Prior knowledge:
By secondary structure, the chain is α+β, with helices and mostly antiparallel strands. The protein has a single domain, classed as Glutaredoxin, CATH 3.40.30. The protein has helices at 63-76, 93-103, 118-122, 161-173; strands spanning 2-9, 12-17, 31-35, 39-43, 52-56, 84-89, 109-112, 126-127, 132-133, 136-140, 146-151.
Amino acid sequence: MSRAAAVTFKGTPLTLAGQALEVGQPAPDFTLHYYQDGLQTISLADLKGKPSIVSVVPSLDTPVCQVQTQKFNQHLAALGDRINALTVSLDLPFAQGRFCGAENITNMRVGSDYQERSFGLNWGMLIEELKLLARGVFVLDSAGTVVHAETVSEVTSEPDYEAALAALQKLLDS
């Protein structure tokens, strides 16, 4: 199911497949892949038990996506293993691994939605026209309920880092 133009790319309206996630909803399941001694998977079950931040980017091979991943990596360093931090893109797991190694991304895991696009479809983040993920940030409580949801309206713009980090900190403080 698609919805009306939900995001723009350099001003051009684009359609997102699926339904937008809203605060208070349980996060939908997904299967992502990453490379560590072979292909491995990450699913929603792997995030439960701790507050989680899920940063969604179109491609780690673009400047804004790199900045978004680097900023979250830097800001989340002090939280250590108190949270789960995940960046999701459609980049191949091997390319994600190279980027994280080159940029010293150590505070976030990366997962690729390239095989099934289950994340993009289930979370309402797959851009139909481009077959890429939109830009966004989600914060989940330890049970997997969405407490913060942002789909960035212009794909080339950065997300509201402060709002996402404040939502995550609120979970840690409660």
